[in-house]
Amino acid sequence: MNSQKRPFAAIFSSTLDDAETSKRQMKDALYTESMVVESLDDNMSDKISPYQWSIESDEPTQFEAGCTSFSNDEPVMSDLVTVDITQLSHDTLCCDEESGNGEMLKLGSCYGTADRSTRDLEGRTITSSNTIDILSNVSSRSAKTRGQGMRYTMLEKDLFTYRFIQGVKELYEFDRANTPSPHIRTVQRYLSKSAECSTEGKLIIKELKEYLERNRYPLAICWSEDATRITGGIEYNLNEDKLSGLVAPIGTNGMPIMNLFKCSSPRKVLADIQDNPIGRNVQLCMAQPICMDAAPFCILYNCTNNKFSTTDVLNKWNFVQAEMDKEDIKVVCMATDGDSRFIGAMLKKMKLPNHNDNPFGAWFVSNTNNDSLCVQDPTHLANKFRTRLVNQTKQLILGRFQVSKIHLEKLVRDVSKDQHGLAEGALSDKDKMKFRPVEKITSEQVMSSLDQHIPLSNGTVAYLKIISCIISSYMDPSLSPSHRIFNVW
Known about the structure:
By secondary structure, this protein is α+β, with helices and mostly antiparallel strands. The chain folds into four domains: about 20-105, no CATH class; about 125-195, no CATH class; about 205-375, no CATH class; about 380-489, no CATH class. It is built from 16 helices and 15 strands. The chain has helices at about 20-30, 115-120, 130-145, 155-180, 185-195, 205-215, 265-275, 310-325, 340-350, 380-390, 405-415, 415-420, 435-440, 445-455, 460-475, 480-489, and strands spanning about 55, 60-70, 75, 80-85, 90-95, 105, 220-230, 235, 240-245, 280-290, 295-305, 330-335, 375, 395-400, 400-405. The chain has a five-stranded mixed β-sheet with strand order 11-10-7-12-13. Strands 1, 2, 3 and 4 form a four-stranded antiparallel β-sheet that branches. Helix 10 (about 380-390) packs antiparallel against helix 15 (about 460-475) and helix 14 runs antiparallel to helix 15.
């Protein structure tokens, strides 16, 4: 019988104080073939089999572990590895350096066959640059692992969980059929342990504060909200014993009334379904930290049938402001789309127009003593300008010039793309929510090409410059305050 070459590792999930428990966990770890890593000792002629093990120690916190390999059908005992329980952290392998059997390995949550590249990846965050490295590492380990012995690091689980969230079940199953990936139930279990489900209609401000403090962001946010279309349906929430998908009435504070659809009896369930409409939209409220590259935080969501008033919006904003003040979080501004109810709430909240005397002259109608700032979401605003441009049912006139989509179509058709970088897809009105087409049509290349090659396009160029000024004033971090005001004005 040829010498079997199998790697060895002792992997622990937590620090253990009880020696008997330590020995038992050591035994389990050694017996499990999947829980292995390669030994770092290049001078060892044999690899240790995880099926044969030996533990000998009376010390409460320290013991020696050894495994055997087989050579010519005879068991050969390997060098003993001294393991100090007090030095073990989460999923850490400790080896006695004096015995020449390796070094301390910090594996994070890697329970599978790992190598140096795995350890190099551990502790990093997922970025576009190391995603390929993570996936290739998983693929190479998967080729060496038999059956269900594959284990994944925390970083890898984070990546696959993100893919599951983004693509939902169907796309993840397609990915798994073509690439090495954890089973979908593994990802779902990991997601349920790592995340908490927020309740519909609940304002989660304490969690927001924890998020800001954990990332060392200032306790200041920009509140933004918008509704998006969904496929309506009624579902039963097993964990909370209630129905979801129905539109709850709005309370006096502007918030949806919670816990209305408890399934206390079949009669109540039928009454709730008959008396309340199914939500065809979901209202999302996001808190954007006042910090560069900070991810927004979903602080509130609820089903809606789009039936609410300006007063409801104002009541909700006042309630949110009061709750934020309790946690010392400052709401710098409110941002929404161009819905007339939100615009009306903005005007009332900012007390516009203000015809009283102010230090900036008669043309300035804002209230200078107002701490609340309301803005229209720049992405929505720029998209509405683009939608108006590509809509040919109505004409746009600026002075003596016409603003028309025809000028851009003529530019795409008659001038090579290397001069303007524009394609016909950017002029389509099928998807009104894409922001990338707005950036393309407002580029300097497009506007200069229109000036040079398309006659009588002055109005279209001026219109595109207006959109460009709106985008840069709100979204370009390099602009000075005076330059921003100039662009907005």
